[in-house]
Specification:
Layout lengths: L1 H10 L1 H22 L4 E11 L10 E11 L8 H28 L1
Antiparallel strand pairs: 1-2
C-alpha cells in the first residue's frame, strides 16, 4: 500500500504541479524579503589617456572604485511590505493546494 501511494504521488500531474507552484511561491517570499534588506553595489572603472590632449601632458591613468550601500531604515509600510504580505499569503494558499492535491490522490 505504501508503495502504491508513493507511486501515485510521484506520477500524478496535479500533485507535481501543486508542488512546483508551492516551491515557486516560497521563492517569491524570499525575493520579497530581499527587497527589505540592505543593498550594496560595487562599481569599478578605469580610463587611460595617452597624453594627446593639449591640456594634459603625459599619460593619464585614472581608476575609480565606488561602493554604494542602501539601507532601508523605514519605509512606512510601503510597497515592499505589501509585496511580502501578498507573497506570504500566496505561499500559504499554494501549500494548502498542494496538501489538498495529495489528499485527493490518496482517496
Amino acid at each position: 500500500l505504501e508503495e502504491a501511494i508513493k507511486t501515485a504521488m510521484g506520477s500524478n500531474p496535479a500533485v507535481k504541479a501543486s508542488d512546483y507552484q508551492y516551491r515557486a511561491a516560497k521563492k517569491d517570499v524570499y525575493a520579497a524579503v530581499g527587497d527589505l534588506l540592505p543593498n550594496a553595489d560595487l562599481e569599478l572603472s578605469r580610463s587611460l589617456q595617452d597624453g594627446s590632449s593639449p591640456f594634459i601632458s603625459g599619460a593619464l591613468d585614472e581608476r575609480v572604485v565606488a561602493l554604494n550601500v542602501t539601507v532601508p531604515i523605514y519605509q512606512g509600510g510601503g510597497i515592499a511590505h505589501s509585496r511580502l504580505r501578498a507573497a506570504r499569503g500566496l505561499e500559504q494558499k499554494r501549500k494548502y493546494d498542494s496538501l489538498s492535491a495529495k489528499n485527493d490522490t490518496m482517496q
